[in-house]
From TrEMBL:
Gene3D superfamilies: 3.40.50.360. Its EC number is 1.6.99.-. This is General stress protein 14. The keyword Oxidoreductase applies. Keywords: Oxidoreductase. Pfam families: Flavodoxin_2 (PF02525). GO terms for molecular function: electron transfer activity; FMN binding; NAD(P)H dehydrogenase (quinone) activity. The gene is ywrO_1. Residues 1-168 form the Flavodoxin-like fold domain. InterPro entries: Flavodoxin_fold, Flavoprotein-like_sf, KefG/KefF.
């Protein structure tokens, strides 16, 4: 099974948690594709992205959650790459492929509850899950990592658990 990690982080150079999560993999175990870096001047090479997706069986979206949503560039990527006639509307290029979601949040994950925010992380990713379903993909799981109560760092034990879960999801 060939796994593609689609990293969509508009400021990956400053990321701590997303970089740490990727340390879960050894060189060559997965294909890591930094979508923001590949898009020259914000222009997505749709044909190249589609070819990359076609060449893999398992696709993991990794991104930071911004304002309880995906980064704007991930939305642009979906709009352009998951095109009518290719991914849906008669096209079935992604049919049967496995999809996972890995996300980081800038606050403790315990805040993502009915009691604190009124919803869970699982509910936040529903639009991504719906997109996966719409292109006839198979959703295989969600991994997430948050910050400590100071909002300044992640909890080492939670990072360890998230890395283990990420490996299971991707490999």
């Amino acid at each position: 099974m060939k796994t593609l990690i689609l990293l969509v982080h508009p400021n990956y150079g400053a990321s701590v948690a997303n970089k740490a999560l990727l340390e879960a993999f050894n060189t060559g175990e997965v294909t890591l594709h930094n979508v923001c870096e590949a898009a020259k001047g914000g222009k997505i090479d749709v044909a190249a992205e589609q070819k990359l997706l076609e060449a893999h069986d398992r696709i993991i979206f990794q991104y930071p959650t911004y304002w309880f949503n995906v980064p704007a560039f991930l939305k642009q990527y979906l709009d352009e790459v998951f095109a009518y006639g290719w991914a849906y509307g008669g096209g079935e290029a992604l049919k049967g492929k496995e999809f996972g979601i890995v996300t980081t949040v800038g606050q403790p994950v315990t805040n993502y509850s009915k009691e604190v925010l009124g919803f869970t992380i699982e509910e936040i990713v529903l639009p991504m899950k719906a997109s996966i379903s719409y292109v006839k993909g198979k959703f295989i799981g969600l991994v997430y990592l948050g910050r400590d109560k100071t909002f300044q760092a992640f909890i080492p034990e939670e990072l360890k658990k998230a890395k283990e879960a990420y490996r299971k999801l991707a490999l």
